[in-house]
Design goal:
This protein has 346 residues and is mostly helical. Helices cover 65% and strands 0% of the residues.
Length: 346
Amino acid sequence: MRDASRHWSSRLPFYYGWLIVGVSFITMAISVSARTAFSLLLPPLIDEFGWDRGLVAGAFSFGFLVSAVLSPLAGRIMDRQGPRAVIGSGVCLMAAGLLAAPAIAVPWQLYATLGMLVGAGANLMSFTAQSLYLPNWFVRCRGLAISLAFSGVGAGAILLLPWLQAVINRDGWRSACWAMGLLVLLVIGPLALLVRRRPEDLGLLPDGAPHRPAASGTPRPSNIVDPAWVSVEWTLARAMRTGRFWWIALGYCCALFAWYAVQVHQTRYLTEVGFSPAVAAWALGLVASVVHGSAVWTHVAQPAFGVMRRGHTSDIRARACGSAHQRRWPPRSPDAHLFAIGARHR
């Protein structure tokens, strides 16, 4: 572990992990909103080029297909190079896609820019990437920290999507792509330089603890649901031979299909039934903010209802899929190969 006094983080009046949470909040707000903004770009693209609605929406689906293929590679890069390399790559890909999008003239260019590049970039900056390093920074406050970071998606949606629609109304969809591309490049790019994989890299301890807790003779209550399951040394191949892995995969597939299949067409539908584009943009932002902003309120409400004790996984979606709680980080269960939010027990 490095000497903390040698890094400027030691002079902060608060724990550096909360700065990491703030960076993650802003990164999630911008990157996920940039991908969600495809719903706002769909109507002007159809109107200008006269393409079939299914053809244009297919670029959005193609981006998710690329993301699915890219996810295992993102995990390997995170293990070897750390989060700055992964998030930085996402910034370059998404910014390139958005800044090149105004030159779209034929469908394959739409699929290459707003589909492949933006989709891949969002994957490297949003849920999967953030989940691979954020839990390292907290133990006692892990649930709150991750919930706050992920609530950036809701804040970004309600703030950025109406603004982006105003740019589309005033200057056209090409200017909106330029504006969003520059926002990704000039805001997330510099912030990514502040990210570290774990507090030990800066000579710190999780939660900002002054020292590691001493071993106690009294055994702590165990939060592990299935000790035999957790004790297995999991590999991807072994995980794929279990039913839990595929049930979790099916759960995410069905949930995200239902969510994004509606979202991508939502703006076009609302304008067709008589709502203004501005109102449609606010509706898109409001839905996203309610869904993702509920993460913080879920964390706050859980102790009152006895749903989750301290140290349990913070992501209610992972819990709904029956994910087993882990003793160490990085997690070694098959759940982690799908969505890496675990809980460290010490």
